[in-house]
Amino acid sequence: MSQKIYDLITDRIIALLEQGDIPWRKPWKPGDAAPRNSVSGKPYRGINAMLLSSLGFASPWFATFRQIQGLGGSVRKGAHGFPVVFWKFFGAAAAPDGEDEQAERRERVPLLRYYTVFNLEQAEGIPADKIPPPVVAPAGFSSIDVAEKIVAGMPQRPEILHQAGDRACYRPATDTVILPNRELFASPEEYYSTEFHELVHATGAGHRLARKSLADWAPFGSADYSREELVAEMGAGFLCAHAGVSNATLENSAAYIQSWLQVLKDDGRAVIVAAGQAQKAADFILNSPAEDDPNY
Fold it and tell me: For burial by CB atoms within 10 Å, which of 10, 55, 138, 173 has the most?
């Protein structure tokens, strides 16, 4: 069952990439809302946020078939739903009085599951008072100010060095992020998008999230390199969306797209794993509490 879900999501990502569309570069403009559930109000995260945002609906609100019925409406005839994946844990019952909680966690087995949601634009008959209002950014919102606060608030932040030249990278040996001088960037959005990309790389260091794809450094074009770049690209996309900054980290080049496509075609789990790691990296940078289930 889990492999079927991996294949379902991977096939959707591959189809978008083959069209030249990179779904994790679909940040929401200031004033727009990330896709979210119309009943709970919670934003979708990880791979769900990326795929739902790539659908092109004006409304950010999604709901299951039953939730739409519960709102008093129905799904339009012929409308197709979209999968939302989540992890369900099976295994040991709760330890009495908190005893041996670590053993309890080790015995829990995560299994990937999914359910289907529809955008509210695909529904009809919902009373006006049951339709969630538009979510807009507060007045005076400044994407640049928010981006600065995100960087300043990152726990265990690596040293960020600016220098002449056009090289941007994270150096694990010295735990430093190297960026070109700000005035060399075509726009502030490109600067912050690049900075987020390199900070996501930095979260993979051993004293932070200890991400294997960063530890297993490999040359451009290799599978390991492409996996880590997927994490950094997606993580930068999540942070850009959070800050309302347009995501413009890498050129939309055939070389990058082909390297990502090869990884996804070789490993059906790669995109969901990378999205989960990217969400963890973004949460780390935002100093947000980790959640057992990152996908609502």
Answer: 10
